[in-house]
Design brief:
With 336 residues, this protein is of the alpha/beta class. 38% of the residues lie in helices and 16% in strands. It is elongated, with a radius of gyration of 22 Å.
């Protein structure tokens, strides 16, 4: 059997994602070293690691340098990542000829579901109603909500920023609703937009016309800070902004300013520039900004879809089949 190991700087993450049942399934397929490899124990396990061909990991994957890869993983051929984005650690592996396969479809599936649930709630003004129930009373909060927020009917406009895996899944989930989807994605072709039955437009137009805006833009040096005051200030007075993408894309001071200026707007942020978000951070002082602890992509049972996706690709790798979710180095320029 081929030699394999886990790599990750946080053992708890590996234990959370890879259940005992899934580890047993992996051990039926490869000779899996039981110790999780971290930066702290690579040297002591050097002799074992030199024969490892396959590695597994998840969130808080160790960022390996070229020298560490050559020294400790000279025969590593493939890394299976039971999570989504590989931007943080992937390039050194790929540049050293190590293949990467991730579980991005499983992540996309859950994040898109989460975003859909928020779109439904926020289009009905649920955030406003909840926050103002105590302030205004049952009748007043209810009546204002009914007159101010349209719900998902009569071609309510929903803005999607980024039409990658998550954005596409979300678009498909929205099909049963009577909505018009406005999409911003510079890499989206007109032909693909027609296939999805969406309107490709500018990012300014998305912010100006949408009832709810959901961010799924890939995170890279070109998109950091792209969502600023010039865009947030275009939002309608009863619109909502959802971020399940990356916190670095939002200029948080600008978002806070606009949410104060437009108290009928609402923002739900599952991601922030710094995580955990500081207690004295500016976003915490704004009533109509709601911060979540980065939970969109997984829950207790849902996390098993990540390892199931990885195990399927492991099976394909072992019989030399193409991998469904292989990450190529050129993909890092546009993927999340």
């Amino acid at each position: 059997m081929k030699k394999a190991c886990f790599i990750g700087d946080n053992k708890n993450r590996i234990d959370y994602v890879f259940s005992k049942e899934r580890i047993a399934m992996i051990k039926e397929r490869v000779d899996l070293f039981d110790t999780i490899i971290t930066h702290n124990n690579m040297e002591e396990n050097k002799e074992i690691l030199k024969d490892v061909e396959i590695a597994f990991g998840s969130w808080e994957m160790a960022i390996l340098t070229k020298e560490e890869i050559e020294t400790y993983f000279p025969n590593l051929k493939i890394f299976f990542y039971a999570a989504g984005s590989v931007q943080r650690f992937g390039r050194p592996l790929l540049e050293n000829g190590i293949r990467i396969a991730n579980a991005s479809p499983a992540m996309a599936y859950h994040v898109a579901q989460f975003a859909l649930s928020l779109i439904i709630l926020l289009s009905k003004g649920a955030g406003f109603a909840s926050d103002n129930y105590k302030k205004m009373g049952w009748h007043a909060a209810r009546d204002v909500t009914f007159t101010k927020y349209p719900g998902l009917y009569d071609k309510t406009k929903i803005g999607i920023l980024g039409v990658g895996r998550i954005g596409t899944d979300l678009i498909n989930y929205l099909k049963p609703f009577d909505v018009e989807i406005l999409a911003y994605d510079p890499f989206l072709s007109e032909e693909r937009a027609r296939e999805l039955n969406i309107s490709k437009t500018t990012i300014e137009d998305v912010f100006k016309r949408s009832q709810v805006i959901s961010n799924h833009i890939p995170n890279n040096i070109h998109t950091q800070g792209i969502l600023d005051y010039s865009l947030f200030s275009l939002m309608k007075d009863n619109a909502a902004f959802i971020n399940t993408g990356r916190g670095a894309q939002v200029v948080e001071e600008d978002l806070a300013r606009v949410m104060r200026e437009k108290p009928g707007c609402y923002s739900v942020l599952d991601v922030t520039t710094v995580e955990p978000y500081p207690d004295d951070g500016i976003l915490r002082s704004v009533d109509n900004i709601h911060i979540l602890p980065h939970i969109a992509g997984y829950a207790a049972s849902e996390v098993n879809t990540l390892t199931d996706c990885v195990i399927k690709q492991l099976d394909d790798y072992l019989v030399n089949k193409p991998l469904e979710n292989e990450v190529k180095i050129e993909m890092l320029e546009t993927m999340a």
